[in-house]
Specification:
This protein is mostly helical and 75 residues long. Helix content is 49%, strand content 0%. The protein is built from 2 helices and no strands. The chain is elongated.
């Protein structure tokens, strides 16, 4: 789909994804789906709301994933 969105879980990245990485992936996704690199002023609010919603869903996903063979940070 969007080649510039990278995998945000180990082992693809060595540590937990940063907020910047999560937001960048969400922004790339919204840009791809909407077809806008930068939305017009009348679409800015809904565009930013979509980025935040996707970033939140991404955080939830990454926090809930269990990766086989990964060592838990709480162990």
């Amino acid at each position: 789909m969007c080649r510039s969105i990278k995998t945000l879980r180990p082992p693809a990245i060595p540590e937990k994804a940063t907020e910047e990485e999560i937001r960048a992936a969400a922004l790339q996704y919204v840009r791809k789906v909407s077809g806008f690199r930068a939305p017009a002023a009348h679409n800015q609010e809904v565009f930013e709301a979509a980025v935040e919603a996707i970033a939140e869903a991404t955080r939830d996903l990454l926090e809930g994933l269990q990766v086989r063979g990964a060592v838990s940070a709480t162990a």
